[in-house]
Write a structure and sequence with these properties.
three-stranded antiparallel beta sheet; globular; 5 strands; alpha+beta
Length: 120
């Protein structure tokens, strides 16, 4: 997939986010890539659980991923799914428009994002 395609719907990624995706994929082994495709043993995480994750971590109306301390695979998955949810038209949340740097903490790598409540 070309960079320009990642900037369009449904992805709508910024340059910094595309860099993160490309660097993450480049650093993954074949087994890790296959694991991402197959995801054995992964439980389904629903919209309600994602929204609860966001609400649990919002402080002063902002969930700042730089302040998160992820300690489980499930929380990491919820963070990634929270970003996906925030891109949807009818989502209660959105991410602030910034070029995200990469956070590396507790063995996890993810973009520095700020989630806020969307006023529908």
């Amino acid at each position: 997939m070309q960079r320009d395609e990642l900037k369009e719907k449904p992805f709508c990624l910024k340059d910094g986010q595309i860099d993160w995706v490309e660097n993450t994929l480049k650093d993954m082994s074949l087994d890790e890539k296959l694991g991402q495709m197959i995801c054995p043993g992964v439980q389904m995480i629903g919209k309600k659980q994602i929204e609860e994750f966001i609400e649990e971590h919002i402080e002063k109306d902002v969930l700042d991923t730089e302040k998160l301390s992820l300690t489980s695979e499930e929380d990491f998955e919820k963070l990634i799914l929270a970003y996906d949810l925030s891109t949807r038209k009818n989502s209660k949340y959105k991410t602030l428009e910034e070029d995200a740097e990469t956070i590396e903490k507790n063995g996890y790598r993810y973009p520095a994002l700020k989630f806020v409540r969307r006023h529908l």
